[in-house]
Design brief:
- With 442 residues, the chain is of the alpha/beta class.
- It has two domains: 159 residues, no CATH class; 269 residues, no CATH class.
- The termini are far apart.
- The strands form three sheets. The protein has a 21-stranded mixed beta sheet that branches. Strands 2-1-3-4-29 form a five-stranded antiparallel beta sheet.
- The protein is elongated, with a radius of gyration of 32 Å.
């Protein structure tokens, strides 16, 4: 008996068992923490997808483009759902992987916010507008072995912020919604200071365009045809970009669009031999027809000229003017097929600051008969922004800019052939179109 009491055999095993109890607990806690890490990866993937898809939808709002019917919130939650995260009772999204019911004590939440992101800080204005989308995705679940540490539930959150950036200036934008709204046809050979030309729908190539100088690019939002020619463009190109913004959409709802009238401009001959025309008075009237033909020499004095249900036609002669804006209303038609044109917009428009830098604001309705033709033949200089939101524009021949470095066009559809001068240099910043890029910044 005395020998048995003095025996130490088995003591190591006993000590080992005692030591294994906390060790097993630590390993078990580590395994549970590992499951939290896996869940964290899943919530982050869902947040990234939700923020990015929501920001793509936001970019359409910013561009004032023809957006689909679903909201930023819907698109964000749709892509969170495709990654298996939904709010309770909100699981009916295309491609959803959300379970209609979760295991006991497990819940998931998705929140989408629109706000401003600047210098690493996200703020949410009361109006719900901004340049970024924030997605917050979380899963709450019970703690098991971690309960010994006082945890009964564990919340595993993730956040992602996607920013709509505007990196590239655009000198020609086709708004659509027509398919192939930007058509590059004929023997197009643009010249200027180098900038992007873009379609908010698809690009249609009727030939291989060429460009003089650097800085040019061709972009579209929904593809290019014919596919065999799309990769042959000699400048950077991307046919699946987010929509480009339309900075002049504010003009579409201005009160001055209701002006009417049919009085022809009074243009007396001055001592210099030119017929000098005066802008509309501060009243509510608008001019009617205006024609410039061979032998005519017209000067538009500085100011804003309103035309209503008018035909503005130039087949020859000369037309010039500095600091002028033409506002075309009603069923007004514009064509330049000959002559010499040298017009430039005012940096500051005395009638409305929304027209600063705008040479032509055409609010004519969407009609086939309202198609605008600008055929320069090397003698047309249009300095400023020309805006045709509801009208098809044919930009042919050779246009040039001698009075300003700014020459940009925004139109419903844009058919370009020949050689056109395009540039955003010197343009009023409020009129410049930008492409958009969506990037995850957090």
């Amino acid at each position: 008996m005395r020998n048995l009491l003095r025996s130490r055999r088995g003591s190591v095993a006993f000590v080992t068992v005692i030591a294994l109890v906390p060790l097993i607990g630590v390993v078990a806690l580590g395994a549970e923490a590992g499951s939290w890490y896996v869940t964290k990866q899943h919530t982050q993937n869902a947040a990234d997808a939700a923020a990015y898809s929501g920001a793509l939808r936001l970019s359409c709002n910013i561009a004032n483009a023809a957006c689909d019917a679903q909201s930023v919130d819907y698109r964000g939650k749709q892509f969170a759902a495709q990654n298996a995260f939904c709010n309770a009772g909100d699981t009916a999204y295309p491609g959803t992987n959300c379970a209609t019911s979760l295991p006991s004590r497990i819940s998931r939440a998705v929140q989408i916010d629109i706000g401003d992101y600047n210098a690493g800080t996200f703020t949410t204005p009361a109006a719900g507008v901004g340049n970024a989308v924030r997605a917050r995705v979380s899963q709450q679940q019970p703690a098991y072995l971690a309960a010994v540490l006082g945890l009964t539930t564990v919340n595993i959150p993730s956040q992602a912020i996607a920013l709509v950036q505007q990196p590239t200036k655009v000198c020609a934008l086709a708004l659509g919604p027509d398919s192939g709204a930007l058509k590059l046809a004929g023997n197009l050979s643009n010249n200027g200071t180098g900038c992007a030309i873009m379609s908010d729908t698809s690009v249609q190539l009727a030939s291989t365009p060429s460009f003089t100088g650097s800085g040019w690019a061709v972009y579209g939002a929904s593809g290019c045809t014919p596919s065999g020619s799309c990769s042959n463009v000699s400048v950077p190109h991307n046919y699946f970009m987010p929509y480009a913004n339309n900075p002049l959409s504010k003009l579409d709802t201005k009160s001055f669009n209701s002006r009417t009238g049919n009085t022809n401009p009074v243009c007396p001959v001055q001592a210099d031999g030119w017929k000098h025309c005066a802008p509309n008075s501060a009243g509510s009237g608008a001019y009617g027809n205006f024609t410039v033909s061979n032998g005519d020499k017209y000067v538009l004095d500085p100011g804003t000229y309103f035309f209503y249900n008018a035909t503005i036609k130039m087949t020859g002669g000369q037309l010039k003017g500095t600091g002028v804006t033409l506002v075309l209303l009603g069923d007004t038609k514009l064509s330049i097929t000959g002559g010499t044109v040298d017009l430039s917009a005012p940096a500051t428009n005395s009638f409305s600051s929304d027209l600063n830098g705008v040479l032509i604001d055409d609010q004519a309705p969407d009609k086939t008969s309202n198609k605008v033709t600008i055929n320069g033949n090397g003698l047309v200089s249009l300095g400023g922004t020309v805006y045709f939101p509801h009208v098809d524009v044919s930009w042919a021949g050779t246009t040039a800019s001698t009075n300003t470095t700014c020459s940009q066009v925004i139109a419903k559809t844009l058919d370009m052939s020949g050689g056109g001068y395009l540039s955003t240099q010197g343009c009023d910043p409020a009129t410049i179109v930008h492409t958009q890029v969506v990037a995850l910044v957090q």
